[in-house]
Amino acid sequence: xxxxxxxxxxxxxxxxxxxxxxxxxxxxxxxxxxxxxxxxxxxxxxxxxxxxxxxxxxxxxx
Length: 62
What we know:
21% of the residues lie in helices and 31% in strands.
């Protein structure tokens, strides 16, 4: 499903991204937005904050 979201927030990228193949994240109200840093005008994934926290917990477990 495609929806329009505002993407004019402050985008952040990891300081460990040396080769430029990274994602950027931004907070937008109750949503966390994720996009490809090499294609800032491209598609954006949108996650609810609870879903994003669960994702981060799962990544930290690995």
